[in-house]
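G., the chain you wanted modeled:
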Amino acid sequence: MTAPELAQLEMLAQVDELVAKLNEWVEPEIGWEPLSQSQALVRRLLRRIEGLRVRLESPLVVATFGGTGTGKSALVNALVGREISASARQRPTTIRPVLLVHSNTDVELLGLPLDKLDVVQCDTPVLRDIAVIDCPDPDTSEAASAGSNLEQLHQLLPHCDVLIYTSTQQKYRSVRGVKELRPAATGCWLVFVQTHAAVD
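Predicted structure as tokens:
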């Protein structure tokens, strides 16, 4: 067992211990109003803990998005180390989001809308700890209408832990990308990648 795996197990054990103590704390009814209110709040939090604990054991969800032709799919293939996601300069290349996961990953635990994704399982080592979503281009639709790229993006980004935003020098000022990035980046790690550096 590697050091990071051991550290992960230790953290999960600490979470379990904290949850057990909180469950004990909310059990007795004291009859003092401030304490009763606090217990009610903790009970509500405990109902949400299981979902959060599942996320702690799940791979990190990483999404790439940006304008058409900025190299999202090429970047995904480079990260994974295989030609998995179609990449080209045509408009648009990625029409339906592609979820790349390790063959051993239980995709149900990721909480993603799987019916809206093309799932590709692969045994490449990097996918043991991350799941990668190659998102459709936000600048190919003007509005978040039913089934549009923008609507798909809105459904996926809240489930992500890390957002990789790709852009070229020509697309650096993309208004659509900035508008989508601002609300989506709340609570996420954000990585900005300027591609085609040799050309620009």
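The beta strands are 60-66, 98-102, 118-122, 130-134, 162-167, 189-194.

Shout if anything looks off.
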